[in-house]
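Q&A log
Question type: sequence-to-structure
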Amino acid sequence: MSTDGAEGPPGHDRNSELSRLVALLTQFGPNVNEVAAKLGVYKETARYWYKHFLVERRISLRAVPNYRKLGLDRLIVIASFPPSFQPHAKTIFSLLHECCYLKEVEQIPVEGRFIIHVAVPAELAETCADLFRKLERMEVLSRLEIHRFSWVRTPPMMSDHYDFRKGVWTYDWPAHRKVPLVPVPDMEKERYDKADLLILSELQEDPSRSLREMAHRFRIGYRKLVWHHRKHVRGQGLIDGYALDWRAAQPSGEHGSGNRYLPIRVILSGADEGTRIRLTALMQRLPFLWFEASGSEDYFASLYLPLETFNEFLSRLKSLQTHEPTLRFFITDQTSAEDYGVSYHLFHGPSKEWQLDEPYVIKKFENLKVQVKSS
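Response status: OK
Response body:
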């Protein structure tokens, strides 16, 4: 067992230890005692590193659901609103989360359009897409496009390219070599129930939340939740891992102001396999990749680029452009971003099936249209 003090080794060695800490947190979550054992340091040392270099510098941790084992596809919908509905955008998004599996949304400020993520059961994906098309015909939405993805990924933090003291990335574009593509695992949908989804929902919001606290909140037996957590959530791998959110990170006071980020969204549609692979390879090499989704012909990526890297990124992106596929990128407005979480409330406990009540959805929006016209 290491006898290093809480401060740990100086300089580059400390950054290396913190990189190992991050890799283990990605695997085990905020179980610092288990992480300390894997690192070979005292529990107090691991706790100090976790608190001082991550928590106090606004690097947070969250559980990432395994969407494939949950059987959830991803629709990425790009749409705008007719003028009369623009003031009601938040109401519309709340309704879509309540009824149509909307997970998150952000605005493209220059165009006034929105990028809408829908985490929907695969068996309901086409029905859900048709509902969005009906909302366009009802003139609730406009300029609609829908992309479907069967695989999504929140990549682990590439902590070996990050200086934790200065709060900046140390990525060197020209020197970076190609890396193998992340394989798409062959996974079957697991069986789960409402209790498993409640646990996932809570851990996604706060991975340090205790099962006892959940049991009290939901009035479910503590032993029942412990069993579900051990047998299903962990045993069946319903959690894909833990993501470190470095987007709001701040360095310590004496080390400058850290990185400022430009939120970039890249979408490739109708591409041949070679073009899609080249774009995926570029995105997966970058430590600034926050999220990616892949389908048979389409690819989507969310990145947070340090401002000084934008020109180099744009140059690399332009080199991929061909005549046939559509390759676009958008700069989004993070002040407009909302994350509603997965629509666990649409899972019917007794039948253990997801629900999508199309007549109910249409009725809701017909009522909204009447309200808008009369206002």
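Response note: Residues 347 and 354 are 4 Å apart (CA to CA).
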